[in-house]
Specification:
This protein is of the alpha/beta class and 460 residues long. It contains 22 helices and 7 strands. Helix 7 (144-157) links the parallel strand 2 (122-127) and strand 3 (167-172). The longest helix is centred in the C-terminal third of the chain and has 30 residues, at 420-449.
């Protein structure tokens, strides 16, 4: 006993708490151990679902709102059938094949492709432009174009051990910036892909504002050379947006009920400002449905006015003025109206072009407004300077409001602009028919005017 006490006297504990006595440690019975384990298991099974339900991350909320089956997509059934037809009939195993999905931002292009590809047994592999620098085998920094080319060749020729799907589909919507200035290098990459690739690829092109990505990287001669198909996705309709927001509202209340409460008035407010962008609508629905403390409720309720597309067009084509002596000013500031539609400048200007003649009285005012909108189209087609979009919106909004001094009073419903592509196609077809008819008629006239030659006299 003395020897054990002597040996234990030099051992100092490593913790601040006093060492537990052996007698007290042995007092824990088997029932206490089982009871503590049961309590810990109960607490763990209670906490884990609570964390899963009370989601506070924005990325997790957006992921929870994504569609899981074709009936939840906002893309029309006709466009879904077009994508399915390409996946089922155009795609051949071991052969390269390309498709372009283009349309306005937030119309559901990527979500539709992912859902339909999964339904048909495809594993989607997406290219994301890396931010960090990578080194090759010679310790040299690889350019974005080289890494993109390496991605296309490697992914299309080598399968992944982590994938269970027999078929694979490549997705590219984040193009490297180097191709915007050097389109020839992108064309060479496409040529190498169609020579060595073995998997289908889908390019997502979002036409926002004055972006001309589709015309730059995929001109008609390139699409015809490689046989690239294209499908145009239209903006989200009001009915599809309403059904999607109702489904998303139930998901948000279930997964993030501690911080978000989505009500029907909030959904109706988002629908009143619908511009066909489901991504923008979901983000706005999340932010206006956030729960705030009572002391901050009055401050948050006094937020800035939200202006819908139809009301914005009405304020431009039917401007209201206030007279103050010899001067006057607009009731609604033109720059503030234009600031609401910077993300959808093209849609906003098309609505104005379709409806501005309803309130114009004289031919001179109509001519001036037409010149303003024509110049706005020219400025909006310039994609090299992003700031021109703001200038175009301010110029067209202020110009039409100034020129329309005495608008026609009365109820004028806002009309939806027509599809320019269909009209352009019809014009091109009619022009081609007239051109061929002119050639045929001219040739027929020439044959009628030719004299009859006597071949025997010519031989003599």
């Amino acid at each position: 006993m003395d020897h054990s006490k002597k040996n234990s006297s030099w051992l100092m504990p490593s913790f601040d708490s006093t060492p537990m006595k052996k007698s007290s440690a042995m007092k824990r019975t088997t029932s206490q151990v089982l009871g503590s384990s049961i309590i810990s298991n109960i607490s763990s099974t209670y906490v884990i679902p609570l964390k899963r339900r009370n989601t506070s991350s924005l990325s997790a909320l957006l992921e929870a709102c994504e569609p899981r089956k074709p009936s939840e997509l906002v893309v029309s059934r006709q466009k879904q059938q077009d994508i399915l037809a390409w996946l089922q009939h155009k795609v051949r195993k071991g052969q390269p094949c390309a498709l372009i999905l283009y349309g306005p931002s937030g119309c559901g292009k990527t979500a539709a492709l992912r859902v339909l590809a999964k339904e048909n047994g495809f594993n989607v592999t997406e290219w994301i432009t890396p931010v960090d620098q990578a080194m090759d085998e010679n310790n040299r920094v690889m350019r974005q174009g080289d890494r993109f080319e390496d991605f296309l060749i490697r992914v299309t020729r080598y399968s992944s051990v982590l994938s269970n799907s027999s078929s694979r589909l490549l997705l590219v919507k984040d193009f490297p910036n180097v191709y915007f200035q050097d389109t020839d290098s992108f064309f060479s990459v496409l040529e190498k892909y169609f020579e060595m690739g073995k998997e289908p690829i889908v390019f997502i092109c979002s036409e926002t504002g004055n972006s001309k990505l589709l015309q730059m990287l995929f001109p008609p001669n390139v699409k015809e050379k490689f046989g690239i198909d294209s499908i145009n996705i239209n903006p989200v309709t009001q009915t599809a947006m309403k059904n999607a927001l109702k489904r998303i509202g139930d998901i948000l209340n279930l997964t993030a009920g501690q911080m978000i409460h989505v009500s029907q008035p909030k959904i109706d407010e988002i629908l009143s400002n619908n511009i066909g962008d489901i991504r923008n609508a979901v983000l706005n629905l999340i932010f206006i449905s956030l729960k705030v403390p009572e002391q901050l409720e009055n401050v948050c309720s006094s937020r800035v006015e939200s202006l819908g597309l139809l009301h914005g067009v009405g304020r431009v084509i039917n401007p209201k003025r206030t007279q103050n002596g010899n001067s006057w000013k607009f009731v609604h500031d033109p720059d503030e109206i234009a600031a609401f539609f910077q993300s959808q400048a093209t849609v906003y200007l098309k609505f104005i072009q379709e409806n501005y003649l309803n309130t114009i009285r004289g031919i001179e005012e109509a001519n001036a407004c037409a010149n303003i909108l024509s110049l706005g189209d020219v400025l909006n087609s310039e994609w090299r300077d992003i700031n021109l979009t703001k200038v175009t919106l301010s110029f067209c909004t202020r110009g039409l409001m100034v020129m329309n001094e005495k608008p026609v009073s009365g109820w004028n419903p806002v009309r939806k602009p027509q599809n320019d592509k269909i009209d352009m196609q019809r014009c091109l077809e009619s022009a081609e028919i007239r051109w061929y008819e002119s050639i045929i008629k001219s040739n027929s006239k020439r044959t009628e005017e030719l004299p009859d030659f006597d071949t025997e006299s010519i031989i003599e």
